[in-house]
Amino acid sequence: MKLLHALLLTATAAVTTPALAEKWDMPTPYGDSTFHTKNIQEFVNDVEAATDGELSITIHSAASLFPHPEIKNAVRSRQVQIGEFFLSRLSNEDLAYGIDSQPFVATSYEDAAKLWEAQKPVIVELLAEEGLMPLFSVPWPAQGLYTNGEIKTVDDLSGLRFRAYNASLEEFAAAANTAPVQVEAADIPQAFATGQVQAMITSPSTGADSKAWDFLTHYSPIDAWLPKNIVVVNQRIFDKLSPEVQSAIQDAAAAAEARGWEMSKAEAAEKTQVMADNGIIIVPPSEELQAGLQAIGETMLENWKANASDNALAILDAFQK
Questions:
Q1: pTM confidence score
Q2: Is the C or the N end of the chain the one with fewer CB within 10 Å?
């Protein structure tokens, strides 16, 4: 009888004890005030609600857990389960990753969406080779030019120390006869304060979030490109989840991508106004400046084509049709 009683208790416990909650860590490169991070927080909330807490995700923003360049490999090596990074940082692995950071290829949200449609299947395949699965991707607003004083031609940039955040922008800066300096978004104010950099191309989001008015005077909306962030999960870890939790993640990811694109569109106008309200002078680019920048972009695209993989060239071909 004692044995039977013990077996009944064990069976009852097995039925009534809930599954242990899965806990994930998610490094992101940007601060909590950035719209990307806010969107990710909503994604996390959606996952936790849909799974009744069976999966909880802790966000480690502003590169507090891993430096930005290490996030992808941290997910790949299963040090963390999920992470966000700037997609074109991987251009040195395959130029397919960086087509959205090629100057003046896609300069509107409509074009950026068309480019992502062409790019996504290739990115999915490339990341799968590393055991990673993309969940969603969201663009930054179109990139603008930040300087002290108005820049009327490309020649006015000559000799400036220029903030860069990926290989394409380094090439762009060098072509404009400036000195490119790698600086992460979180380090922008200090870099300008110490004279490490003197000008930059970045989104209105980053400009406002870094309080560019403290160290710069002018912003010119050149609409150079709309680069994307991407959120990826380790495939092996994802595959171990129940079908219900997998579905909840994918549904939340689809919602996050749609929401993120709308947040980005709203962000462009809102943060440009924030900068204007704080004293940044908003100057439309002159015809001479725009023509000079586009000429650099055309040269860069020819260089990109000469070095691109077949997959990368297929993306451009599909986009331009």
A1: 0.89
A2: N
